[in-house]
Write a structure and sequence with these properties.
With 289 residues, the protein is α+β, with helices and mostly antiparallel strands. It contains 8 helices and 8 strands; from the N terminus they run H-H-H-H-H-H-E-E-E-E-E-E-H-E-E-H.
């Protein structure tokens, strides 16, 4: 039996039984159809992307109906939705050209349908959560946010996930259904927090007077500050150090610039006054018995 199966004459008869001309003819037309379909959908993608860019890049900016962050968010959602729909129809067309009856398979595969239905629950949750994030203006592209353990800037909001560029420049993909607690630090106004660490024997009142002098001179000249500074005085930072704390209300886009600028001005003025500040955290030693 083994010799019969490996007989060259039988294999040759089996191979010769194929109508290679017909097979190559059909294969050529299938390949041509796949190339034409791919080119067609590529053209549709380019045209659609151009329309999206035109709508969000020119018309809405001209009409001034939405801000730049909101525009970026809506543009991201529109682009993702368009790409998902286009990819679905491209895949459906490719399978149809190959000869796979997609409709019949989906209609007859009961277990597959149930499995897909269970798997689609997560996708549905992602889409619904993403819709509410968009509808309620919870976050927009360009916002600086804290999502649980992830801190960074929103780069893209999609139907399934949100992309966060971390402070270490890492790109984090967060499924929308897992976004349960959002701390948005880019909602119009923030407080630039400034802590000037001091020694227990430092001239606290003199340092506070220096801070007030610096504020009186520089706050009217600084863009982004929207209210008077709140000088809280001396506080315990909870790590063995004390500091003179101040909050400066400012626009969300100016927070870090204001914080860096005024901390530098305070330190320079305190140094010019001959006051020595601690170089490191001041830890009070426990006396040994």
């Amino acid at each position: 039996m083994f010799r019969l199966a490996t007989n060259p004459s039988i294999l040759k008869q089996y191979v010769d039984s194929f109508n290679w001309g017909h097979i190559l003819h059909n294969l050529t037309f299938v390949i041509i159809d796949l190339v034409l379909i791919s080119i067609f959908f590529l053209i549709i993608k380019v045209i659609g992307q151009s329309l999206v860019n035109h709508l969000f890049g020119k018309y809405l900016q001209k009409e001034k109906k939405i801000g730049p962050k909101r525009e970026g968010t809506l543009k991201s959602i529109a682009t993702n939705t368009f790409n998902y729909i286009l990819e679905f129809f491209w895949l459906y067309s490719v399978l149809t050209v190959i000869g796979i009856p997609v409709g019949s398979l989906l209609a007859g595969a009961g277990l597959l349908t149930v499995a897909l239905g269970l798997g689609a629950q997560g996708l549905a949750n992602d889409i619904i959560t993403g819709f509410f994030i968009l509808f309620e203006h919870q976050i927009d592209v360009g916002d600086f946010v804290v999502l649980d353990t992830i801190t960074g800037t929103v780069e893209e909001i999609g139907l399934r996930s949100t992309q966060i560029r971390g402070v270490d420049d890492s790109l984090n993909f967060v499924p929308n259904r897992y976004i349960t607690n959002i701390c948005n630090m880019s909602k119009d106004r923030l407080k630039a927090e400034i802590n000037i660490r001091v020694n227990p024997n430092s001239p606290i009142q003199q340092i506070i007077d220096i801070v007030k002098e610096v504020n009186a001179k520089n706050i009217p000249l600084t863009d982004g500050i929207i209210d008077e500074p709140q000088l809280l005085g001396t506080v315990d930072l909870g790590d063995g150090t004390i500091a003179v704390k101040e909050w400066i209300p400012c626009k969300d886009t100016a927070k870090f610039a204001v914080q860096f600028k005024f901390l530098q001005l305070y330190l320079e003025a305190i140094n010019d006054a001959g006051i020595t500040l601690p170089n490191n955290k001041l830890i009070t030693p426990i006396p040994q018995k």
